[in-house]
Amino acid sequence: MIILKNAKKEFLEFGFEKASMRSIAKKSGVTAGALYKHFAGKEEMFNALAEPVYKKLLSLFDKYTDSVMDDIEANSDELFDDSVKGTTGVLKLIYEHFDEFQLMFNCSAGTRFEHIREKIVEIEEVSTKEFLIKAEENGLAPTRLSDTEIHIFATMSLTPLFEVITHGYPYEEAVKIVELMSRAQNYAWEKIVNLKVN
């Protein structure tokens, strides 16, 4: 849809708050009134661009969380490899929809995506707590972490992805960065949480 294509360009260039519906209408060859027949306002237009990709991201988080939980349940030595696969899978999604991630992370002030970094960290915290509970139930992680420590771990694990979105590294370089940081995180889990698998 030409309107959304031009809206994306406008949001990427000016950010949500400074983007102009009139400018989008002009670039799309329609009047502002005609534009409002399609979208009630800027936020609805922004959501139309960002929401489908955000839902894909959440679905991917759920998929890889389930995979790691299954590894814990089975005491599988694939746990850490699956963790790395999960992170690189998210990275692949980011690069498949790079403009939309730029919108959500760097151009969204004034929208519901404005605090997306904090929201994703919160999701990771919940997953980490579930992971630790499951690990403890299976005798894999005798050391407990405080909520503050979990928050720091969650932030550390996601920061490489946030940096990739912010700086737009070439995909091949981003893969190397994320894989390296994922393996470093896994090493930390082994040592600090005393996580052991067969």
TrEMBL record:
DNA-binding segment(s): 20-39
Show the stretches that span the lipid bilayer.
Answer: none
| UniProt cross-references to InterPro entries, sorted A to Z | DNA-bd_HTH_TetR-type_CS (IPR023772), Homeodomain-like_sf (IPR009057), HTH-type_Tx_Regulator (IPR050624), HTH_TetR (IPR001647)
Look up keyword DNA-binding and say if it applies. yes
One of the Pfam families matching this protein, by short name = TetR_N
Gene Ontology MF terms:
DNA binding
Chain ranges of the HTH tetR-type domain? 1-57
- Which keywords accompany this UniProt record? DNA-binding
Matching entries from PROSITE patterns are given as: HTH_TETR_1 (PS01081), HTH_TETR_2 (PS50977)
Q: Does the keyword DNA-binding apply?
A: yes
- Give the protein's recorded name: Transcriptional regulator, TetR family
Species: Catonella morbi ATCC 51271
